[in-house]
């Protein structure tokens, strides 16, 4: 069941390089608004719908400089073209999926850099959920925009890739600094709690996290971003020791 969503831009993290705010979309999606503090440059990650993003941009005079896409699914790209037409923003996304997206101004591959004003992010290829899925990692502050590869207490379904690919992608993300803030694409944490508990019923960090999540959602507050340290301690998919275990967990979750 879809969880109630905040009605305004919330969850702002003040950092040395970027201010980051959530834009709730649909019933459980998030787009993320990034503002470079040094230059005022504005970017949005995964705008599945244009209207809520335009409302979030109103305090900035409707300015938008860059649109960052993680993968081709409609709930992540649906507002991109309208936003580009209305703001003149450049559109960046995975080169491997550009044939399934509006025409990209910047086609990105693994290891490339992407600038939001004076803040620079790194593109990480994370196949699994889709074959061309990418994530964006900024280190000032440490922030990961991971689309549908990694969720708080969960991970994306294997729509196109293999469990081995997803395992490698999650291992790559887990190697980022533990203080990294994890900005995923959906508010799935509460629904993920039950499966995580079934997978690891005796994990004390998980039990504490579940109580925190229930408290936040009872107040219709977002549960993301979490931190990578928290996910490594509580997320059964990040904690899987090998790809076969991950495959088993993902198959169980699909029918849970």
From TrEMBL:
Q: What's this protein's function?
A: Thiolesterase that catalyzes the hydrolysis of S-D-lactoyl-glutathione to form glutathione and D-lactic acid.
Q: Which SUPFAM superfamilies match?
A: Metallo-hydrolase/oxidoreductase (SSF56281)
The UniProt record lists the keyword Hydrolase: yes
Q: Which UniProt keywords are listed?
A: Hydrolase, Metal-binding, Zinc
Q: Which Pfam families match?
A: HAGH_C, Lactamase_B
Give cofactor(s), names only: Zn(2+)
Q: Which residues form the Metallo-beta-lactamase domain?
A: 28-186
Known EC number: 3.1.2.6
Q: Which reaction(s) are listed as its catalytic activity?
A: an S-(2-hydroxyacyl)glutathione + H2O = a 2-hydroxy carboxylate + glutathione + H(+)
Gene Ontology terms, MF aspect: hydroxyacylglutathione hydrolase activity
Q: Does the keyword Nucleus apply?
A: no
InterPro entries of this UniProt entry? Beta-lactamase_class-B_CS (IPR001018), Clx_II_MBL (IPR035680), Glyoxalase_II_hydrolase (IPR050110), HAGH_C (IPR032282), Hydroxyacylglutathione_Hdrlase (IPR017782), Metallo-B-lactamas (IPR001279), RibonucZ/Hydroxyglut_hydro (IPR036866)
State the encoding gene: gloB
Chain positions recorded as Zn(2+) 1 binding sites:
71, 73, 129, 148
Q: Which family does it belong to?
A: Belongs to the metallo-beta-lactamase superfamily. Glyoxalase II family.
This chain belongs to which protein, by name? Hydroxyacylglutathione hydrolase
Cite the SMART domains for this sequence. Answer: Lactamase_B
Species in which this protein is naturally found = Acetobacter suratthaniensis
How many and how are cofactors bound here? Binds 2 Zn(2+) ions per subunit.
On assembly, the entry states:
Monomer.
Its domain of life?
Bacteria
Associated pathway:
Secondary metabolite metabolism; methylglyoxal degradation; (R)-lactate from methylglyoxal: step 2/2
Question: Which residues participate in Zn(2+) 2 binding?
Answer: 75-76, 148, 186
Which EC class does it fall in?
hydrolase
């Amino acid at each position: 069941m879809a969880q109630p969503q905040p009605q305004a831009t919330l969850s702002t993290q003040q950092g040395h390089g970027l201010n980051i705010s959530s834009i709730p979309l649909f019933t459980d999606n998030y787009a993320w608004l990034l503002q470079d503090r040094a230059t005022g440059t504005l970017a949005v990650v995964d705008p599945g719908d244009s209207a809520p993003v335009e409302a979030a941009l109103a305090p900035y005079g409707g300015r938008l400089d860059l649109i960052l896409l993680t993968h081709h699914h409609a709930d992540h790209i649906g507002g991109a073209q309208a936003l580009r037409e209305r703001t003149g923003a450049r559109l960046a996304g995975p080169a491997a999926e550009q044939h399934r997206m509006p025409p990209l101004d910047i086609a990105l591959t693994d290891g490339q850099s992407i600038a939001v004003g004076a803040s620079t992010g790194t593109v990480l290829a994370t196949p699994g959920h889709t074959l061309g899925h990418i994530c964006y990692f900024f280190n000032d502050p440490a922030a990961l925009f991971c689309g549908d590869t990694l969720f708080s207490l969960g991970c994306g379904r294997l729509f196109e890739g293999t469990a081995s690919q997803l395992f490698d992608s999650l291992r790559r993300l887990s190697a980022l600094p533990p203080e990294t803030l994890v900005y995923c694409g959906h508010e799935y944490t509460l629904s993920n709690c039950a499966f995580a508990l079934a997978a690891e019923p005796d994990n004390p960090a998980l039990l504490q996290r579940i109580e925190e999540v229930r408290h936040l959602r009872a107040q219709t507050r977002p549960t993301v971003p979490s931190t990578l340290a928290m996910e490594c301690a509580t997320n059964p998919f990040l904690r899987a020791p090998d790809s076969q275990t991950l495959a088993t967990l993902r198959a169980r979750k699909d029918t849970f």
